[in-house]
Amino acid sequence: QVQLVESGGGLVQAGGSLRLSCAASGSTFTINAMGWYRQAPGKQRELVATITRGGSANYADSVKGRFTISRDNAKNTVYLQMNSLKPEDTAVYYCNAKIPRGLLYEYDFWGQGTQVTVSS
Predict the structure, then answer these.
(1) Alpha-carbon radius of gyration of the chain
(2) C-alpha–C-alpha distance, residues 16 and 86, integer Å
């Protein structure tokens, strides 16, 4: 199994920045892609950004140009640099790791989440 622990959330004013970290432990050699998802109150969990082991990243349209995902495979850690934060970015941010099962299916492992609150 894989355990994921997020850190770096907090309260920030609109226009500010935060850097989230997610440290993976356990069977980290099995991890394929990692990413960040978020869930605001009353809303469905949504993808924010993902990154492959080789460093290929993709982003939700709402965060393109503002957020940057990166990965340090040696440290088994994924980061999310969030700039130009907006109140609508307020959510619990969850780290995700994908473990292959079969050819076309993957298990998802999740961290406990870290709260990001952006004030107006």
Answers:
(1) 14
(2) 8
| Nearest one of 70, 64, 75, 40 to 52, comparing CA atoms | 70
Q: How many CB atoms lie within 10 A of CB 9?
A: 19
d(CA 95, CA 3): 10
- Evaluate the CA torsion angle 111, 36, 57, 80 in order and state its sign: negative
- Contacts of residue 55, Cβ cutoff 8 Å, sequence gap at least 6: 71
Distance of alpha carbon 117 from alpha carbon 66, whole angstroms: 16
Contact 78, 51 (CB under 8 A): yes
Q: List pLDDT tens digits, range 64-103.
A: 999 999 999 888 999 999 999 999 999 999 999 999 888 8
